[in-house]
Each structure stands twice: as structure tokens, then as C-alpha cells.
């Protein structure tokens, strides 16, 4: 199975490194390989494992920090070979254009892009309201956008920031954060959707998010299923699971309006939804799915 | 397109003062009508933002290959009063002193064609390309610091080049005032093993052919050492991770002092700047000069490798193969120059981001051998379409602070190009058309496909019609190593 990959992007000083620290603190039950921006050094005091395309540091919590010394493609292969992570997370430089990176990733067959997290410094948007060329691309590509440093702006200013971001990207899920802490749920980013995760719910520790889970025998047509996903209520931020479409089985991934299917051998339909206040949709979704089930 | 853009010349357009309240000078765009229509909307906004910067003189310029970039447009030119103006990393580009070098041979197309594959393959092996590529030079920190202060001169002294190479490089390959104490350890670490490497993106090394019908000015071509059916070598690269880190370091410093200490207000943080005369401005200028020297040294070492490869493949001394440089000129810099503004000679800091210095005949700062001709200007096209050798003109001195275009300019993002083009297929198609390409990455090739760029001939036509450059010859690629 392809390793899911997350891109973390944002301007210099927006809080990318802080976010990575939060990930290391909060996500203990997944092995995550973090690729520090393409040139960044590893700032953690531990023994560095030198490789051909990447240097690595294994952390106590299971995370692995990596810094590139060669091409990204080779580094990813090396990381998978050596540490076999559940997730790979790439932090971009504050000045990189993430759209080009995304296409590079789409050409690497060992991984699949899971989601893009963009970190915005609210205070900076107030100071420099013309969001520049690179800033725009970063915001456009984001599935989840952290409006960080929210404590540095007042309510009116925060609304302005929100509106600015919405003008550029109206599909992303926005979070208000301070030091990258706030109404975040790491299961949203790291998609705890496979069977063992659903049984073991210890990691689901946020009361603001609600989860829905469905299981069906049978199959869907791809067209019907895509239509269904496209028309989900906006409070559903993410959906993931296994589906049988026509005669093939897939792992599907829905993030803030973006849909991906990855061929995957499985014999059932298992669907998992996450969002804010979505329990009320349980019956409606069940009915809609049953209607298109063959 | 902005509705009240005015045509002020055949290929010159102006957004007048007052279009936006905060403008200090008008915006001037050099372009044919077709190129103007192709420009992305953000270029106008960016050129307008640049026109608000303190100390900007005459105009905020956009060259015909202009497209949007970090803060300033790529193809943007802004000259600031050295006394009252600012310096901005966004007006220089992250790849400090990225530029072009053109090298002659006395070989003809018929002599090279049978050996083309061998040449390109060996060059590909000897001139490392790609994001993390490292060079054969293993330097100590002390040696690297010497190189940062001495540029290409350091390389020639160590045997990587000929003394005449320096005379044919902008600033003689070594800009004065590079101060290594203004460089962060991180920048040193990123650059120390990258001397002699192409890097990635749109950087390349090409073997090109002078087709007889492509010589425009025969007399000038002859004086520059160009003849019919000749093979020349052109390459494009810069200061690699080193320059990138210098820019990153100072962007952060500028952001923290710009408003608090100097009261400069800007709309887009990508335009972070500091007064040229301030401590921070001068520190950046001295650090940026290290980037300039790193880049000259990088191209010098690559030339050395090219000479080795040609010598090996043709089993002849490089001297006998006539591997002389025509020139090395940058297109991502800010330089302190003297220009006449409103009849007054004054010191200005000229930002050229994706724009090439194009000094006219008899201007100080160009090599003696080119004094009468004007400064050679090397313009790289996309790998499919060809490149140009031009000359700087007096008109450029008068109109654009001695500046012209730098390449063909993107018409679509890298992303879009990759969606439309498959690198593997493009390489095969190019081979059918007689262009042999080697690259570390297929998707990288797709980014650089001809369709992703403006028509180079149209861009050159615009600068020639404007009189800010003079056409000499167009080169066609037959071999390409893509970074």
C-alpha cells in the first residue's frame, strides 16, 4: 500500500516548526517520518543516522525526523525502506511553491498525497494585507488552514483574515490557533480510519469533533459515489475508508472537497466520516448510501 | 489587463502615476501587444507594489518576459536612489546572481554531431544536476570563505580556468565588498559542497548550433568570434542553496525592522526591504555580494569541467578547441551603479530580477574587447526553442538603467506544465527533432517544456524594437542537460 503523505506549508515564521512539535507531542501511536524542509537541518539532540539521500533521527515517540541530502524521490524511497512509516510529513521552506512539490509527489509511486496543511500568521496578514505570489499558492493548495497567532489580532481583524483566506480558498477547513494549539484534532490530519484505529479510540480525544462509521456489503457505481461525496454537508471535513466501485475495490480519501481513489484489495465497504456536529446527519447519510448501493 | 494602461511607444506601455494613490513613480512595461495580453494579472499588481517603494527612480519596469514572482515580478527592474532608497531581496531573487555563460568552440556542427551523445552523457556525469547535487570540489570552511570573497578569481588561481575568463565575466568574476562576517553558518553549510553544480529548476547546460540563417548581425558576430555552423556552449545557473539561504536570512531580518525601526509600510510582505544606507541594508548588500561571488565561482568551475569533457571526447587540448568564453552576465542582482537621472549623474542601486544588464558601447564596467560593440547579453530560451546573443545599447542606458530581458518568461506555472506535458514523452520527441536531453527528473523536464514559455523570438523582437538591445545571433540547442 502507498504511504500517505502530508505537506505542511506556510510563510517563514508562520509556525511550521511549532506545528511539527505539536505533531510529535500528540501523535504517539503512529510512526511518522517528518522531512524537515528540503534544506533544513535536524535540530534535535539525538544520534543522526546518515543515509544516501536522507539523514534520520529516531525519536522516542516513534516519529522519525529526516533532512534531505539528495533528491526528494530517493529520500522517500530510502525512508520507506528503512523505517516503513505510517505517514510521511514534508515541511516546505517558507518560500517554496507547494504546487510544484505536489506534482513531484504525484510522480512518486511509493506515496500518495493525503492532505495539505497551510499555516497562516494572522498578525502578518493584518500587517501585509496584499497576500503575495507564493503566499497565494500556499493558501490555494491548503486542505486544512491554521489561522495561527490568533492571539495577536482582535476579533474584527480575525474576521478580516478569515475573509481574506476565503477569497483565495473557499473549500479548506479553517482552524483558529495560538502556537498551533486550538480546536485541532490530529485524527483529522492523520486519518485514523483503518479498522484497528476505529476499535481503539484512545486517540480520539477532542470533544468538538464527531465521527460517523458505516459498513455495507455490495457495491456502488463510481459516478454515484463521487456524486455522493461531492454533495456531503460542509461540516464533514474528511471521509475515508474502503469502497467497492463497479468491480474494483479502492481506498478512498476525501479532504475538504478533494477526492482520491487508490486501488486496494478489500471485500467490504467501510466508510468513516469526521467533522463538527455531524451526528445529526447519521440517518441521512445512511439512507443516501443505501439508495445508491447495488 | 489594466483598463487605463497607455501606449507610450511602439512596444512601451505605461500605468500612469495616480492609478493608485500610493504610487511614487509610473509603471513601464516593455512588450509587444501580444506579450502584454499574455501577461498574468498579478504582474501589474506586483509592478504597482514595487512603484510604492521608497527612493524608486523614474519607473517601476517590467521587461517583455515578465511574469509574477516572489514580491517583485520576474522581469522586474527598479532603480533606487542610493541615498534615500531601499534594497529588497524580493527584487533580486532567491538565486542571487543567477546568470548565463556563453562559451565558443572552433568545432562545427558536422564535427560534433557524431559525438553528441558521448559529449552530453559525459557532461551529465561531470556537471552534477538536481536539487541536492554536490560538486567535486571539497572545500574547507576557510577555503569556501575565501571563494566567497574572491569569486571566479579564486577558481582561476587554483587552476580551474584561464586568466582571460575573468576579463570576460561581469565584475571580472569578483565583486568587491563581499563580507563573509555577514553570512550565517547555515548559508555556509548549504553552499560549501555545491560549487560546480547546476542545481534544479530551469537551470541547464546546452550544446548549441549557429545555423547560418540565424546570424542577424554578421559583423558583430564575427567580432564576437561567432561563425556559421559553429558549435557553442551555453549554461544557466546561480548561487544554489547558498544564495537562497542568504535571501531567507535577510528577509526575516528586514521584516522585523522595516516598519518598527524605519517606518516603511508595504502591502505585501514578500517585498520586505530596508533602507540601502541602513546597517541592515548594508549588511545584506555585503552578504548578497558573497552570493554574487559564489555564483561566478560556480559557473567558473562548471566551465573548467566543460573544457575537460570536450578535451577528453575530442582528445585535444581545450586551447586548441578554442573553448573561449564570450561573456558571463547575471540576471538576478542589485548593483550600485552611476546613471544619469533627469540630467544629473547619481548613484543608484539597480535591482534586476530576471533582467539582464545591457550596458551600451563605451560604458564603464564592460570588458575592453567589447568597448566599441557594447556589452554581450546572453538570453536563454526554453530547451526547445533556442537562445540569443544580443548587445547592450546606449538607449538602454538612457531608458532602462542599462537593462533588458533575461529569457522567454513563463506563460504557465510549473504545475500546469506538468499537468499538460509528460517529461518522458517530451524527451523522446526532442530526440526525434535532433535534441538530445539528459535530466535527473522527468517531471523537471515537463516543467521546462517549450509550451510553458513565451515565444522567445517575440520577447527578443520587443527589446530590439524598443532599442534596449541589439540582435546578433540566435542559437539552436542540439544537446541539453537539465538541472
**Could you say how many structural domains of chain A there are in total?**
2
Gap between N and C termini of chain B, in Å? 34 Å
Greatest interface: A-B, 33 and 40 residues
Q: Please identify the structural class of chain A as seen in this structure.
A: alpha/beta
**How much helicity do the residues of chain A have?**
25-40%
- Radius of gyration of chain A from CA coordinates: 19 Å
Secondary structure class of chain B reads alpha+beta
The total strand number of chain A stands at 15
Short note summarizing the structure:
The complex is a heterodimer of chains A (294) and B (483). By secondary structure, chain A is of the alpha/beta class.
Characterization of this structure:
By secondary structure, chain A is an alpha/beta fold. In chain A, 31% of the residues lie in helices and 32% in strands. Chain A folds into 2 domains: 3-184, Rossmann fold; 194-292, Hypothetical Protein Yjia, Chain: A,domain 2, CATH 3.30.1220. In chain A, the strands form 2 sheets. Chain A has a 10-stranded mixed β-sheet, sandwiched between helices. A 5-stranded antiparallel β-sheet of chain A has the order 11-15-12-13-14, covered by helices on one side. In chain A, a hairpin with a 2-residue loop joins strand 9 (173-178) and strand 10 (181-182). Chain A is globular and about 55 Å long. Chain B is an alpha+beta fold and 483 residues long. Chain B folds into 3 domains: 1-97 and 331-354, no CATH class; 99-128 and 204-237 and 358-483, tRNA-splicing ligase RtcB (Alpha-Beta Complex), CATH 3.90.1860; 133-199 and 239-301, no CATH class. Chain B contains 16 helices and 19 strands. At the A-B interface, helix 3 and helix 5 of A face helix 2, helix 8, helix 10, helix 13 and helix 15 of B.
